[in-house]
């Protein structure tokens, strides 16, 4: 599937507006075959605009991975010559130890 460049959105909207005007003209003139062909093109242009909207929504959404953020990690606690790092949230679970 080909993807439309988001920078081309104004051009695609212009194409859609032009197709709507051409469909109105074809209906006014009684060109039924032309109306059908233009409706297919209009549906494709609108589908591309929907794809652009969906892609923008997908890329602007933040996905939480469940990993602790930097501000959630507590200061090192010194115990018997060792540093024990702890999380601040939910019962202060130990996440690592190292010898000093």
Q: Which residue ranges are poorly predicted, with pLDDT under 50 across at least 5 consecutive positions?
A: none
Write out the strand line-up for the largest beta sheet, numbering strands in chain order. 1-2-3
Q: Judging from the principal axes of the Cα atoms, what is the shape? A: rod-shaped
Note the total helix count: 2
Number of domains: 2
Please tell me the overall pLDDT: 80
Distance between the termini: 56 Å
Q: Nearest-angstrom radius of gyration?
A: 29 Å
Content-based structural category? alpha+beta
DSSP E strands, number: 3
Q: Report the sheet with the most strands, covering strand number, pairing sense and barrel closure.
A: 3 strands, antiparallel
Q: Helix content range of the residues, please?
A: 40-55%
Tell me the β content.
Answer: 5-15%
Topology pattern, helix = H, strand = E: HHEEE
Spell out the blueprint of helices and strands.
Layout: H1 9-29, H2 32-60, E1 77-79, E2 82-86, E3 94-99
Antiparallel strand pairs: 1-2, 2-3
Helix pairs in contact: 1-2
Keywords: Coiled coil, Plasmid
Coiled coil: 9-55
